[in-house]
Specification:
Strand content: 15-25%
Order of helices and strands: HHHEEEHEEHHHHEEEEHEEH
Structural class: alpha+beta
Shape: elongated
Helix content: 40-55%
Radius of gyration: 30 Å
Largest sheet: 6 strands, antiparallel
């Protein structure tokens, strides 16, 4: 049992952390490359009114392992730069004697025409030092001439140097937007790192995890058979048949609905096998007339079932009887 205990402990460690909602993720498009590249183009321009000056430019150079030059631009950053063959470069940032060519990858594979990007940049900016940056969520193998800068690396430099801008800034609106932007990107690379660790964990413990999955199946089957046996012991007539419907209630656990043909097709006792180890009974009475509902309500122990509610106008529900003691649940 010790090996299973260690696996459970490790699974708890690898649970995905609760992600804080941010303004970029609300619409479900926070990971799209184009809007993220648009925001980057805004923040890397020292002349924009975000009050962060050359913070982003400086972080890009540090992330690429390059000495920061004079952080002034000859023109605004250019998005979706079209090459002679029709390919598009995500972002070009031009300084006095340097150029950043940035390809931004969030959830897409790195299969871009990098040679065409280089051919275009060398033709247009041949008098300047060109730095090719592949900006990614996770570390990638880059083509020759390109430098892989991860968002984690970029954000670490942003956080190190942002203090002085917070002190001197007069417009805190952009502080909030930058925080949300960073949070949105952190959610991306943290999730990618967690996914990699979780996949490796499953691969290394596949046999034991499968055994535990089988145990879970045995547990659910045992609870089904016990409840059916108890219900049949209350009514031993041949006409009494018990149907079982199993539902996945997500974070709550597995719900088992027990339905006797004598109760009607939908009235049921539901046993919830909660993920925290507790067991819960809920009662569902379908299409009950008001006078019969009053009678049922008077018979239900209010100290055990403290909540009464109605679903879909005709379903009267009673809950929740919780216990960690399965014998107490079976008795109930």
């Amino acid at each position: 049992m010790q090996k299973y205990k260690k696996i459970v402990e490790r699974i708890n460690e690898l649970k995905r952390p609760k992600v804080e909602t941010n303004i970029f993720s609300i619409g479900g498009r926070g990971h799209y490359e184009n809007p993220i590249s648009d925001i980057l183009a805004f923040f890397v321009d020292p002349k924009e009114d975000h009050s962060f000056g050359g913070l982003f430019l400086q972080s890009f150079f540090k992330g690429a392992g390059k000495e920061s030059p004079l952080l002034e631009l000859v023109d605004s950053p250019i998005r979706e730069v079209c090459t002679e063959t029709g390919n598009r470069i995500d972002l070009i940032v031009e300084g006095d004697n340097w150029v950043l060519v940035i390809e931004n990858k969030i959830r897409h594979a790195v299969i871009n025409p990098f040679e065409d990007y280089e051919k275009y940049a060398n033709k247009v900016y041949n008098q300047k030092t060109i730095i090719y940056i592949l900006l990614t969520v996770k570390e990638e193998i880059t083509p020759p001439c390109w430098i892989n800068v991860t968002y984690e690396n970029l954000i670490s430099h942003l956080k190190k140097d942002i203090g002085e801008y917070f002190v001197s800034a007069t417009n805190t609106k952009w502080h909030m937007i930058l925080r949300e932007f960073i949070l949105n990107l952190e959610n991306e690379y943290v999730d990618k790192k967690m996914m990699k660790e979780r996949i490796e964990f499953v691969r290394n413990n596949y046999t034991e995890i499968q055994e535990m999955k089988d145990m879970l199946g045995e547990y659910v089957s045992y609870m089904k058979s016990m409840v059916v046996s108890l219900l049949k012991s209350e009514d031993k007539s041949e006409e009494n048949s018990i149907a079982i419907k199993q539902h996945d209630w997500g974070k709550e656990g597995v719900a088992l609905r027990f339905i006797s043909n004598k109760w009607g097709s939908k009235t049921n006792i539901t046993l919830l096998l909660r993920k925290d180890g507790l067991l819960r009974i809920q009662l569902y009475f379908h299409d009950i007339e008001e006078d019969k509902f009053s009678l049922i309500k008077s018979k239900v122990d209010k100290s055990k079932y403290r909540k009464v509610w109605t679903e879909s106008k005709t379903i009267r529900c009673f809950g929740f009887f919780d216990s960690s003691d399965q014998n107490r649940i079976f008795h109930e």
